[in-house]
Automatic annotation (TrEMBL):
Gene3D superfamilies: MazG-like
Domain NTP pyrophosphohydrolase MazG-like per the UniProt entry, residue ranges: 32-95
InterPro entries: MazG-like_dom, MazG-related_GP37
Protein name (database record): Pyrophosphatase
SUPFAM superfamilies, sorted: all-alpha NTP pyrophosphatases
Length: 102
């Protein structure tokens, strides 16, 4: 059976040693890790524009790293990733609805 996003976040938190009350240093490390990995995703897109070729395997690898840091930050803030995904979907749907009504 595939791992759920909440199971993954719990697992990632153990790997990253994210406790119940992470230090500012740990939160900073995770946030910078997320930003760094997002930058690597952006670099793949930049190379697509430059070379007209996408290294899909490399991009997918970096997306996995983004998810790891995101999941760790979810755990560090006591949030269930599935709940954040649901809240994000609601927010995007609300924005789309507001844009359509203009």
């Amino acid at each position: 059976m595939p791992m759920t996003i909440d199971e993954y976040a719990a697992w990632a938190a153990t790997i990253a040693k994210v406790g119940e009350h992470p230090s500012n240093e740990r939160l900073s490390y995770l946030g910078l890790g997320l930003a760094g990995e997002a930058g690597e995703v952006a670099d793949h897109i930049k190379k697509l524009l430059r070379d007209d070729w996408l290294d899909k395997a490399g991009l997918v690898d970096e997306l996995g790293d983004v998810i790891y840091y995101w999941a760790c930050l979810c755990a560090a803030t006591g949030q269930q990733p599935s709940e954040l995904l649901e809240a994000s979907a609601k927010k995007i749907k609300r924005r789309l609805s507001e844009a359509a009504s203009r």
